[in-house]
């Protein structure tokens, strides 16, 4: 029965077997499936197994509902989703989107209590539907377990319940006791049960099912299996433009094996690998398709399959595209760009195979891929904002006590001296060596301090570029005017909303100056400083 | 609940707030929009209704200028608007096959410079109100969601769903809220969509959710919304359109976790930003040959715009604001600005009220042409003179623009060929060539630059000279020569033609080539010198040209502390006196100031620490003086109405009927006023409390340059 699921999801054979056996025989009331790596696949597998179990006519008949705790963010949504799915009810607009109703027309989405009643009503309804006619008249009084209908409720991402609806966690784990039905609840999570377990042993211990992380071979087999489905889906308008056709399967197997060799060390998530494959495959097989097209001896009308590529061609393609796989992973795993755009930007030139080899490798090289660095993105900020960011970085990195020494413009210039840099790892007192603030992360600072540093920076580095300052006679007066301007303060707020600064004090506190933290990296600051000709390293207490 | 009149002052998305005027809280009953602009400094020589006339002239001039600039903005944004609309329409076509799960299309539009116009064009196009950018076939429904609509996930989902359902009415059905799907359930939207898609026949219409000010939305909430929506993408063709203002392009990558980003297919678009906008707006508005602004903006304002734009706020709104203020300032300063567009009729000028104005004008004209003085009663001669001056000014302006275009094309050419451009010109290398040229042309010293150019032109090689001559011919031939005398251009053209023919006849090392090059150099010197005459040479130039008058930068970007101190020192310069009972004009003496200012003056006189008792005593002395003064006034004027003075808070001012007032009562009164003023100063942060010395406070403000 579940052999279908086993076949479709290599690596999950044991899981399929275990779950199927459990559910079809005598399931525990509460099952906890924990999968750290490939939760999406496991969810799909569970769905497939349940689907298979519910469609086969067996006794007991199994009805299931699969709900997600992010989508069902309130208790009411959770109740409605579970009951409507169990009975297979689809609300329709014409009926005013009414929920499923039992004969008595009671409301069951109000609280846990009514939900349990709703479940029982659904159970009765399903038993009737399943042909196992119960003695409905006495059904309520009997309250016996109906062995002919079994309900299975899968709750995905139950860790969210702990945050949003903590009061539901215990009742759900005890749902089979509460409802006194043949019911099994399955939690399907990336998080271990010990992390969401309610305190004081309020919940029963679940039956644990741990899904091991998929091995590389499993993923490869999995991805190759998907190819057949993709071939069916993709339109067969012209075989020369269609990368998903069954005649390319041998090449695809080769491609996936290479891809997994390269990418498996970085991610074990089959979805991510599939994503990278989707972005690279059209480009990978394009030279071959181009070649077939150029040959022109394949009769398109007859539906004749392409001959498999020769070993030489295959090796050549691998050699050409191997370097781009890492580039694809680098751009796509953090989603610096999306697969479609990446595929378009990195499509190989036409007739790559007819080009000389060295040139071919070069031509297939990747283009940027939208890997926009933060430093480059900051270039569009106005000049004052850049100064504010540098000042904020200095305020976050330097200790407050050092400010007078670092920025003071006293008569004695020699005083302006940094702390003597000691060799790392050795301290006089024998205590643990002090870690540089830059490595500890930004420290919060009061806005006044940042403004003062900004003043020092402006006085040193911005004085010459000012438009006019004839009316200011006292040295420093113009800078004093500049740092107090509305534009400066409003830009601090704007930078906060861009998340380049973090406000650490709540915005509704009036007492005391607001505190901020700098949120840009040393490299980004250095780029800004270079642009503004600020000698950043001279101003750092702990220079690099 | 918060009063709807009071804005949320903690909103970080705003840099300024509009607190609407609430007439009920003040005493003034009548509140009419102003029909005139502020009084001129030269009020004594203004026309009788000069303020109204100048206001209408200002309105005309500004509307013309603004209309032009908005047109330019529309041109600037066209490309990105088109891209976004195209992307919206094709979000669900050409999906890359082989993806592990369907992605939710997200289009982010970064628009830091062009303001709301971009989004307005996009939405009106998508909603089918306009069809300029090829969005006429879009079959979609669009919901506008603002950060306030998404405080948490329940409200957020409800706003999105109801926002969409309200937009596109399908037969509404009676529903019982308790036993049917909740309005924040995405299944509810799916049920609605099925019906609507059936109704709309053919291809499945798209659902667009436009999130305004996306950066302000709580990422935690938005994460869940993306998650929910991405699960139902196959049933609901949702598209999220994010409007962002921060110029940082990787906001999504910085703020959202990878798990959320992997559900989305983000495409980023950005509207033009930075100097591109500034150059296009300024150059095409004020230096375009086909557009004639009513008044010409001078280099001081341009410099300020450029500086403020680069330093603080690179957006179109900045340019609009500064230029509008410059217009307003120009029209409110000099009474003569009434002549900008047209000259008032002879009757208006002849009326006896206008005589100071006329006298001033005549004196001004007589100093310009001392030979033919205009006699006292010849108004038509005055009108003629002004009309003539207007014509001359616009002609001068036009020829200056011509000169600028020629100079610019020469500069660009020289730069292309690797020559140094405006060597020795002020501010060279600071910005683009455009600004250099503008500075030179408006700065009043074009001669040096022309000399430099002529010098470089002498070094041109034969091929280069041929190229530049071709360009010059094309340029001058294509220029609109409406205002300028066409003869000059004809002359210039014929000279260029002559040089070109000469050039074709001679070789590289030929002596005759040297002749041609020097001829070209001479020609360019002569041409530019005639064209680039300073605008200040025109008669009555200051009517149409703001020249070197500086821009009042403190209006849009004041220094908070400096304004605070100035406001305390000279309150009457900031607040118009709303109370008609107070004697006007106000003398500069201490007793006429509000309490807080009196206290502040004394604060400045003290040393680092202030003894509160001494402070109070000195305050009391001033108040005694004030009381005495009002008493005298009331006896002399015998006015029955009670006097109030100062700003709104000063309602408890001394009753003039002081005879019945008890001395002890007066003391309490003074004390109360002192305490209030003290607290106001405290609230402004000017006082620091320390327990170091009894009855003493510490000053926080020093070295104030008190002019008085």
Automatic annotation (TrEMBL), chain A:
Residues covered by the Origin recognition complex subunit 5 C-terminal domain: 381-539
GO biological process, one term: DNA replication initiation
Location in the cell: Nucleus
GO molecular function: DNA replication origin binding
Chain ranges of the ORC5 lid domain: 252-291
Pfam families: ORC5_C, ORC5_lid
Annotated keywords: DNA replication, Nucleus
UniProt region (Disordered), positions on chain: 413-435
Main location per the UniProt record: nucleus
GO cellular component: nuclear origin of replication recognition complex
Domain of life: Eukaryota
Name of the protein: Origin recognition complex subunit 5
Source organism (scientific name): Hypholoma sublateritium (strain FD-334 SS-4)
Automatic annotation (TrEMBL), chain B:
Entry protein name: Uncharacterized protein
Main location per the UniProt record: nucleus
Species for this entry: Hypholoma sublateritium (strain FD-334 SS-4)
Sequence similarity: Belongs to the ORC3 family.
Alphabetical keyword list: DNA replication, DNA-binding, Nucleus
Lineage start: Eukaryota, Fungi, Dikarya, Basidiomycota, Agaricomycotina
Segments forming domain Origin recognition complex subunit 3 N-terminal: 10-339
Keyword Transport set for record: no
Subcellular compartments: Nucleus
Gene Ontology annotations of biological process type: DNA replication initiation
Any Pfam family: ORC3_N
